[in-house]
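QA checklist item 7 of 12: single-chain prediction sanity check.
[x] sequence parsed
[x] length recorded as 692
[x] structure emitted
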Amino acid sequence: TASSGLGAPNITTDLLDLAPSITASIDLRDPLKLTSAALMKVLDTAEGINTSNEDWHKPFRRLLFHFDTIESQSRMLEEDFQVDETIPSPDPTVLGPLETYASQLNNIYQLLGDPKTTKKRGGSTGEIIAQAIRDIDDVFEKYTDALRNYAAQSIVQIKQEPALPDSEPLRDDRHKTLKAPNVYGIQHVPCVQGTREKTIKAIRSWAEEKSSERPIFLLLDVAGSGKSTVAKHMANEWTQANRLMARYFFSRDTATTMSTSSFCATVADALYECDDRLQTPIQEFKNRKDFGLLSFEEVFNGIVVKPLEVLDLDAMLIIDALDECNNEDGSRSELLNALRTQHSSTPRLRVLATGRPELDIKQWAQDSGVKYVNFFQLEGGDRDVELYIKHRLRSRPHVQDRLYHVIKKSDGVFIWARIACDLILDTVDVEGLLDELDKEVSLDFLYRVALGHSIPRNARSRQALIVVLEMILASREPLSIAELEVFSPKRGIVEETVNRLGAVLLYKDREDPIRLLHATFREFLTNRSRARVYFIEPRRGHQTLALGCFRTISRHSSQDGTTLRGLDKISQRKEISLLIRDLLTSWGYHCIASYRKLALEKHIVGFARNELLTWADRADKWYSLGTVTCLRNVLVISRQKLSPMITEITTSSGLKTVRRSDYDLSTSIDALLLFWCAKIVRALVMLNSEPK
């Protein structure tokens, strides 16, 4: 231990006088910033004391832990403010412990600056300061607990209700297989008879060409013009004609359908399902030892293009919504570059591609010599939209006449016509709705009209509707009404809300995944300036889903093994549904993507301390999740810059779980790898702080 004779720097005996500033604050962020600055001053002062004794510096690592924690809390409060522009008001339950902490921190600072003080108390400077840091650590825990409780209360949503233990299970057939990504565009419908006839004729003519001059038919047009409908129409037609064909419909609905990660495999699988002779050359290429190292273009050519050339086969590939393929990581550019290779002398693969006229897509087409067309060029006008509305409103000819002049202003946007028809067929005040639609013809205005007619006037119902929309937008994969109700904070609000929004949502029944009618609806809802009062913040939806995961895990973890063993197989399938196995692995993802992360700390800490061990065991024995899957969530959480304390608690609980030895060999190996990953993460975070 360092002696009192250490060379102390020449500093003032008082730290910043924090207590009055903390008491007078009107913004919770201010006292946290002041305390953080004071901590840094103490740490810098301790660092400046000339000693190489490790025992001297060791206690200060805990103060560095405090500093990192308060910095993370300040950052999360600032992120919340950027979202809702609401100043976090100070709370006495938080400020009280923080004032005590500031007072004791000032005491440590005085000890550093005046070694004579320690002589009066007896003992060495190092011993007395180490004890002072242990004392302040207890105060810090009280402060962080108070802040977590305060933040948890700040979650703005309708009152949560516990899930009923005998709540209606999902239908049995929903448990048999995992939900496959919707890359076949099953939500789309083919063209109404009589519409897009010239476009379909042009595509048919192109498909029969034997020339290699135009292997790609590129249809680019505005959002909502019916591109996916045409793609779906041709997919159905070519399937019925038994043509060798594959399809891939991009969509912003999910991470999978935005990505090219499964594109090549999906296309190759579809082709050999049509002609099993393709399976051999495809599998031979996949068996290459360096397969995992190949570029996207090499894989595309190897398992899609080359097998067709080897067997002298011609195939069609439909790629819908190129613009919805994510390009943040360069995926869309990789795909477009791979398609450029189709300009060979004898292309075996002909590609029908659709999308919005995004700049990079048009530039690629120009550089590649690919001509693109739009509906106006193909059809020669907007007559199809008029035909569509007359078809939908054939039982109301007087409404057709009233809408005639509005139709002309819709610029061929089919999605506008579809929503308008849905609203008219669903309303009792047709004349009032027609007057409203006549004011402006734009998708944004139509979405506002649709929501205005769907959202109840009372505040409680409006809040419930917003909560449901937030969950729908935040879901990793489209969820059904039955699934969303498991995670909803209040029973019964999901089905009523979804039914009200029938004009802008796609679903068949309670068990069918809910999808937005069109990508433009998501863009509208998440743009504050466009949506205005209907603006939806998906990060609040992540928060709701995270809390729903914790509630559901808690309920299932509370059931004893005797109860579960007593269930027959049918009852087990109902109680331990695919939903639990498939979705509860997402709690880490939703925590990370959530708004008000500080408000979730209490729930994460409580889960890690009280339920992680039990849940990991249940997940392994009953839910077909595997303990390792649960621990991956812990590792993901621990890697995030949420809070050093979150990292410490989650990794500690995770390590306790992994140390158990009652897993089979394969699980133990995976768990061991995660064990060492968690050790490394914890060591890095705790490098400058001594865990209690």
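[x] summary fact logged: The chain has 36 helices and seven strands.
[ ] second reviewer sign-off
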